[in-house]
Amino acid sequence: MSAADDEAAVQKVLAGDIAAFEGLVRRWQGPLVNLAYRFCRDRSRAEEMAQEAFLRAYRSLNRWRREAAFSTWLFALATHLYCSELRRIPARTVGLDDIPEPSDPRAIDGGLEQKDQDRAVRQAVLALPPKYREALLLFYFHEMDISAAAGSLDVPEGTLKARLSRGREILRAKLAQRLLTPLVRKEAR
Amino acid sequence: MRDADLDCILSKEEEILPSSGFAASVMEAVAREAAAPPPIPFPWKRAIPGLFAAGLVLAFVILASIRLLVHNPSVPPIPAEWRTALASIVALWRTFGASWVVLALVLSLASVKLSMHLATVHGSRSGRI
Hints:
The complex is a heterodimer of chains A (189) and B (129). By secondary structure, chain A is mainly α. Chain A has two domains: 3-88, Orthogonal Bundle (Rna Polymerase Sigma Factor, Chain: A), CATH 1.10.1740.10; 96-188, Orthogonal Bundle (Arc Repressor Mutant, subunit A). Chain A has helices spanning 3-14, 21-40, 43-59, 70-88, 114-126, 130-141, 146-153, 157-188. Chain A is elongated and about 55 Å long. The relative contact order of chain A is 0.10. By secondary structure, chain B is mainly alpha-helical. Chain B has one domain (3-126). In chain B, 74% of the residues lie in helices and 0% in strands.
């Protein structure tokens, strides 16, 4: 399916052929569920949020301005919904200061289990203030495409860059603090 | 930790697959939505005169209360500063013809709502939204 197929499906739905919406759902279910999962880290909640996003898209199909691709519009709609959902009922995360310390602090620069480190970074992203968290999540979801991420968040590219920069700064500071603290403690003993 | 390390970690995200019944579940919800009767639009045409009348009554009540407080000596005493402030508000109201200002604001609001409504109707008819 291409962008032209999306547009044709939308036309059919607007003309009353509800079944044509299934093609859109099948094409975009993967990305929408995955995007929701990055926001909440809960598979079942991700599907609920994605379903609500599709339902809202169906309700407001006639508001899609064809200047932008259908996918751009759909991602913006879904992002807006996910952000409000997460602000309403936050994901079950731990605060930046409560992220568990790695099991073997000596290995930070060398042999720390990569999985532990990845998990700590992801948890730290979810614990960021919303505007930085959303910027980082969207940026990496769109494979580091600033323009696509800014489009989904409906903010100027400059704003997104500033939020990314600040978000990374907070992350680096908090992660360094978390990862270095055990080392300092150990040396002090 | 450098930006490159963060990029490396956050870029490689495991992909999850939607459950097998996800699309069917969405389509069920869509079908329910399509079968539901359209929402009843808010009856602005009927409500506007009522809202306008309510606004006028409210303004009248406020004005009457202020007059009563300022001019009636039997009302429990209020601090002199308050009295002066209220009197100056009433004087300003009269000087600047505030009633006309309120009327103009209400008319502006009504015209904005009407033009937005017309634009929506025109947009959905022409299919360019």
